[in-house]
Write a structure and sequence with these properties.
The chain is α+β, with helices and mostly antiparallel strands. The protein has a single domain, classed as Peroxisomal Thiolase, Chain A, domain 1, CATH 3.40.47.10. The strands form 3 sheets. It has a 4-stranded mixed beta sheet. The longest helix has 16 residues. It is globular and about 55 Å long. The two termini are 20 Å apart.
């Protein structure tokens, strides 16, 4: 709005979070304050416990298995190995995550979610320069165009939603971004989505129209969401392995897509990527912002 109104021709947008200096229980409590202040938080609900509630219901409804959640972690840790800015540069295997004796390496945090189903506590920052096209072209031959933006909200408490296995704010924000851009989900070449919990990558891939309900697990299983697949998701490593510094996460997603569309993603580069997508959400899906990007 600042640029389109003509008030400015270039704007710096930055975000950062420093989380690792506080004990884990303190960080968990602070983050949990994003839950409903009268219903969920006073009852002791944490984001991991809400994630587990969502996961159990979603997994029962769509026959998603623990190995599908583990596949998300394996894929995103592998992607993070190729990202010099990722927090975790450590590959993991299905055997380590869900094999015999895996409880010591990958203990349950809130069943059915285990340690490696969770995004980590992260320090980090990200920044973008936004400009009108003429100004952008005076600095780079490869500007990335923001073609569509959508924002939506949902009930704060999971219990107040029509279906707690749906992420309505994510779906509606994506639909708005597609409508504004004139771009369809099938045209997206690469996406960064909010995988604060592994189950969310699968669920969100369906909400944003990449796959039909219940088929996100199959796309994952068949390698479609890998870097060299038909629909790469979270090439950066995602929140799961790149990290989740809350105030910087949305911009980190946008940065990854910018690099992908500019051909600057090195070993994790998606071939011929020209259209990208991001969706980030707050709370447990109580609000979401989706953006469609296009290579100039």
């Amino acid at each position: 709005m600042e640029i389109s109104s003509g008030n400015s021709n270039m704007v710096l947008v930055a975000g950062a979070e420093k989380m690792r200096t506080a004990p884990t229980d303190v960080v968990t409590d602070l983050v949990s304050m994003m839950s409903h202040p009268d219903v969920e938080y006073p009852s002791g609900a944490t984001m991991p416990s809400l994630g587990a509630l969502f996961a159990r219901l979603y997994m029962q409804k769509y026959d998603v298995k623990p190995e599908h959640l583990a596949m998300v972690a394996v894929k995103n840790h592998s992607n993070a190995m190729k990202n010099p800015f990722a927090q975790f540069k450590k590959e993991v295997t299905l055997e380590q995550l869900i094999g015999p004796g895996s409880e010591s390496f990958n203990p349950y945090v809130a069943e059915p979610l285990r340690l490696y189903d969770m995004s980590p506590i992260t320090d980090g920052g990200a920044a973008l320069l936004l400009a009108d096209l003429d100004t952008a072209l005076s600095y780079t031959k490869k500007p990335v165009i923001l073609e569509g933006i959508g924002e939506s909200t949902d009930a704060l408490a999971l219990q107040d939603r029509d279906d707690p296995t749906e992420l309505k704010a994510v779906r509606l924000s994506a639909e708005k971004a597609y409508r504004m851009s004139g771009i369809k989900p099938k045209e997206i070449n690469v996406a960064e989505v909010h995988d604060a919990f592994t189950v969310l990558e699968i669920a969100i891939s369906e909400e944003i129209g990449f796959f039909k309900k219940g088929e996100g697990k199959l796309a994952l299983q068949n390698g479609i969401t890998k870097i060299n697949g038909e629909k790469p998701i979270n090439t950066s490593g995602g929140l799961k392995a790149r990290g989740h510094p809350l105030g910087a996460t949305g911009l980190a997603q946008a940065t990854e897509i910018t690099w992908q569309l500019q051909g600057l993603a090195d070993q994790r580069q998606v071939k011929d990527a020209s259209i990208g997508f991001t969706v980030n959400m707050g709370g447990f899906g109580s609000n979401a912002v989706s953006i469609v990007y296009r290579r100039y």
